[in-house]
Amino acid sequence: MIEEPYRWVEAIANRREYIEAQLAPGSPIAALGYRDGILFLTLGKTRQKIFEIYDRIAMGAIGHPGDIERLRMAAIELASTEGFSRSATDVSLRRLVHYSLSPVMKTAFEQIYGPPYLARMLFAEVGERPDDDLFLRVEYDGEITTNGATYAQARQDFAVLSGTQQSRELMEAFLKTQHAPDASFEAALNSALDAWSIGHMTLQTNDAKELPERAAVTKYRKEQLANSGIEAALLERDAGRAIRYRLLSDTELRSLIND
Amino acid sequence: MERSPVAFDQNFSGTASDFLTLLRSKGLLAPALVNPVPQAGTPQKTWQPTEATTILAFKFSGGVLVAGDRRATAGNTVVYDRADKVLEIDRHSIMAIAGVPATAWEMARVLEHSFQFFRRTQLQEMSVDGKVRALSKLLRDNFGFVMQGVGVVVPIFATYDSHPKPEARLYFYDAMGAQFEATDYAATGSGSPAVRGILYYENTWGMKPLQQLNEEKAISIALRALDTAAESDTSTGGVDRSGKVYPLIKIVSREGITTLPESKIAAVFKETVA
C-alpha cells in the first residue's frame, strides 16, 4: 500500500509530525557572531548540547542523544580525515553539511521502513572577519538553512535552534533588532541569554505570537539562571592559534551577566 | 572509484574512537607491516641505525627544554639547513625526531590528529600515558619498514602532565617502540653520544643539577652540547656561525609551549658559546 504515491506522502507527513513532536521540548541554543568570534550558548546541563567538531567548527544539537551522537561522530570523522589527508584549511563546513550530512539525513527520513535521525543541528564556522562567519541549521529531513542573505532577509550574524518553529522565529526576531556583528563579548553573552529566555518562554506557552515584554524576559532569565547551569563555548577569531574552540565555564560567565 | 574523504559512509557505525583505525579503514594510512619479507637476492644484513641528527631534551627549573639542530642529510650530502625537527603536537606536547624525515613528519601528523580526534570524540583530553603509548604504537607499526631498511625514527616526547600532579614529563623511544621515561635528560640521533656525555657531566658535577638551572643557563648548555656534537658528527648542523642559522629550541611548561626567538638564542650564543 505504501508503494502508492499518495500513501507515501501521507506516511512522510505522519513521520514529520511525529519527529516535530519529539523535538518540541528541546531547549533552545543560540549562536551569535561577535567581534572576536562566535558564542554558542544554552541553559540547563542535563546533557551536553554544544560540541567541538573541528578547528573552526562547532555544533549545537537537540534531539535523541543516540542520533546526535552518530551525526556528531560522523561530522568529526569526516572533518578529521579531510584535515589529515589535505589540510585544516580545506575542511569546510559548507561542504561537510551539503555534501555529507544532508543527503544522508534526507535518505534516512524518506525511507519510511528505516528510522530517521531524530535531531536538529546548528553548525557554525568562524571566519577571519564577522562577515565570513557561516551558520547552518540542518533539520532531520536534511533541509539546510543558512545565515546568507535572501530576497526576503538580510544576512544574519547569528543562528538559533529551538524545539518549535514559533520559538525559533521569536528568538530570531529578537536578535535581528538586538544583536550587531561588532558586539563585544559581554553584549553578545547578554543577548544570547535574552534570546534563550525568549525561546524557552515561548516553548512553555501555546500561542505566543509577539515578543514578550522586556521586564518579563529579564525576570524569566533571572529565575532560570538561579536554577540551571550555563553551557557555553567559543569559536575564537584569533588567527594565532589553529584550534579555535574553547569551552566556557559557568563561573567565568556569571560575572559578566547584567542583572 | 576513489572515495573523497568527505563522503559519508552509509554503514557508518560511529564507533571508531581510534583515529589510526579510521585512517586505515579509509585507506589513508599505510597498513602496519607486521611481517617484513626480506627482499630476494639481498643478503640478510644487520640493521644499522642511520638517524643522522642530534636532538636533546632535559628538565630545568622552567619545564622541559627540547633542542634540535637544523641539518637534514642524505648520505654525506647536506640537503637542507633549516629543517624543523622539534615539532609541536598539541598545546603541551612536543615530539622531537631523529631519523627519516618523511616517516617522522607523517608520524607527527598522525599523532597530532589522533590527540585532537580523541578529545573531540570522547569529550576529554587524552591522558599523558595514552599519548606516550600512541607514539609507541606508531613506532611499533613502522618497525616492518625499519627492518626493510627504510623509515627508521627514534623520537623524544616531552609533555606537561597536569594530572594527578603537575609536572614535566620526558620520554625517549627506541626504533621498535619501547618507551623509557627519562628522569633528567634524553638525547637521540647520531650526535647523541657526545651530548649524553655532556648532560651526564653537567647533571652530576656541574654548578647545579640540570633540574635547577634557570632558562638562560639551560639554553647555554643546550647550545654548547649541540656545538660539541657538530664538532665530530657531520650530520649535525650545530650553529652555522656565518649563515646565522641557530638550533631550534622549544620549552614545555605548565602554560604551554614557547618557541624561543632566534634573537634570544643568538644573544646567549654570543655571550656563552662563541
Précis, in short:
Chain A has 259 residues and is α+β, with helices and mostly antiparallel strands. Chain A has seven helices and ten strands.
Task: Describe it.
The complex is a heterodimer of chains A (259) and B (274). By secondary structure, chain A is α+β, with helices and mostly antiparallel strands. Chain A has seven helices and ten strands. Chain A has helices at residues 5-23, 65-85, 93-110, 165-178, 185-204, 214-227, 250-254, and strands spanning 29-34, 37-43, 50-54, 57-63, 119-125, 134-138, 144-146, 158-161, 230-236, 245-248. In chain A, the strands form two sheets. Chain A has a five-stranded antiparallel sheet. Chain B is α+β, with helices and mostly antiparallel strands and 274 residues long. Chain B has one domain: Aminohydrolase, N-terminal nucleophile (Ntn) domain (Glutamine Phosphoribosylpyrophosphate, subunit 1, domain 1, 4-Layer Sandwich), CATH 3.60.20.10. A five-stranded antiparallel sheet of chain B has the order 10-1-2-11-12, with helices on one face. A five-stranded antiparallel sheet of chain B has the order 5-6-7-8-9. Chain B starts with 18 loop residues before the first helix and ends with a helix. Chain A binds chain B through residues 48, 51-54, 69-70, 73-74, 76-78, 80-86, 95-96, 99-101, 103-104, 243, and chain B through 5-10, 12, 14-16, 19, 22-23, 26, 28, 109-110, 113, 116-117, 119-121, 123.
